[in-house]
Design brief:
Helix content is 74%, strand content 0%. By secondary structure, it is mainly alpha-helical.
């Protein structure tokens, strides 16, 4: 029986509805704990990973059939995972590559498993709940210091280990999820009212984080996904045409506005606490260009660059002014992958991203709903963030988990639409046959 639909097995299943709902609620809480644990990795990495791993294993043992289906439904990630595993052959740090690939495979499996266990609607609520948990934890952790930081203009970072961008990204995700909570008329009025309050709080904290990346990525995500949602009265063909037209106009307007906004851009960087080098990012990108030229095809190996003993990494740490080794990255998704896995890894990562984006965009255009548009908005947000952050193809990353789940849900909905179309076609042929007789 599918947890998401207690009536899937017909009238006889009605007797087990209370039991099914209890199990569904239990699964929902387990996954809320699992994803919320990932929010505390910067705060307490070992404990967070232990909680997440235990919750995933518990769900896998309880529903082995879901675990098997999760493996099959994550097949779009297989080429990248296989190649990352093969990088063990030429890795500069084979032990770290082996551990990183194992953790990456586990993360992919966990993402596909949660998509099997929960409906899209339940999954969005789990993501919203985990972001809200991190928000409340950050407020409690900072206490009165939060007010001091707000008044002084110091970036609020909460439980995220000194990263204002991580804190800002969580608040942006909370706003995006809350936006579609409010639009979902199947939820109770009280839930929607409370969600509005949470979104307002998240907006205040997002501003206080002074994360330019989170703000810039969220606005287009809301606009694009909102456009898909509110075009529901148009036919799918017209929805796609209108969205593409809006996208084209946006590109033209952006190209026209950029020269005019150069001075405003400098002012915005100053207000967000950044310099013209985007807080050292351009220096990192310059290093990445040199490293890619040194190992263009295969790279250094998955998770094998930022390690003690690598002279390149240690030189970057010195230039960045770090007194001790830190697990930083190149602040660009595609640079990070290319340094680790070369142009072959970059091609596989880009192909995977495009497959997921197209699949989810097709779902949102053909069947607009709060859930499908949430995932579309998330992918737009992530696509923008790839320019300055690293959210994907990393172990224990909430963003990567949502990315994979969006693909699994989109493929499932596509299969359902195909089955409905086949059933309608069969019924039409049967009626035509009977009428001919």
């Amino acid at each position: 029986m599918n947890f998401a639909d207690p009536l899937a097995n017909g009238p006889n299943a009605v007797r087990s509805i209370p039991s099914s709902r209890w199990r569904l609620n239990l699964i929902w809480w387990i996954w809320l704990i699992a994803l919320s644990a990932l929010m505390f990795i910067s705060f307490s990495q070992t404990n967070a990973v232990i909680v997440f791993t235990a919750a995933v294993i518990m769900c896998g043992i309880a529903r082995p059939h879901d675990a098997f289906n999760a493996i099959l439904n994550s097949k779009c990630l297989w080429p990248f995972l296989v190649y990352a595993a093969l990088s063990l052959i030429w890795s500069q740090a084979p032990d770290l590559t082996a551990r990183g690939v194992t953790q990456l495979i586990f993360t992919v499996g966990a993402a596909a498993l949660v998509a099997q266990a929960l409906s899209p609607k339940s999954f969005v609520s789990v993501v919203f709940g985990s972001c809200l948990t991190a928000t409340v934890a950050s407020i409690l952790y900072l206490g009165p210091e939060l007010i001091v930081q707000w008044r002084s203009g110091y970036p609020v970072q909460g439980i995220f280990g000194g990263s204002k961008n991580q804190f800002g990204a969580v608040e942006a995700l909370l706003i995006l999820g809350g936006f579609y909570f409010v639009l979902d008329r199947t939820r109770s009025p009280m839930t929607r009212m409370l969600t509005i309050a949470c979104v307002c709080l998240a907006a205040i904290l997002l501003i206080s984080s002074r994360s330019a990346t989170a703000v810039w990525a969220l606005a287009p995500a809301l606009i694009c996904s909102g456009a898909a949602y509110f075009l529901v009265k148009f036919s799918p063909r017209w929805r796609a045409t209108i969205l593409l037209s809006v996208f084209a106009v946006s590109v033209v307007l952006t190209a026209m506005i950029i020269p005019v906004m150069e001075n405003a851009f400098s002012l915005f960087l100053d207000a967000s606490g950044r310099d013209a080098t985007l807080t050292g990012r351009t220096m990192l990108w310059s290093w990445a260009d040199r490293l890619i030229a040194d190992k263009p095809i295969l790279g250094f190996g998955y998770r094998a660059f930022w390690v003690v003993g690598n002279p390149y990494a240690e030189e970057i740490w010195r230039e960045m002014g770090f007194g001790r080794p830190l697990g930083i990255h190149f602040h660009n998704q595609w640079y990070e992958i290319t340094v680790q896995l070369g142009y072959v890894g970059l091609a596989l990562a880009l192909l995977t991203f495009l497959i997921v984006l197209i699949e989810v965009a097709r779902w949102a255009v053909r069947a607009p709903s709060p859930e499908s548009c949430f995932f579309l908005g998330f992918l737009v947000d992530t696509a923008i963030r790839t320019y300055v952050e690293v959210d994907l193809f990393a172990q224990y990353s909430l963003g990567f988990i949502i990315f994979i789940a969006s693909y699994v849900y989109a493929r499932r909905e596509r299969g359902k639409r195909a089955n409905r179309a086949t059933s309608k076609s069969a019924i039409s042929r049967g009626r035509a046959l009977r009428s001919s007789l």
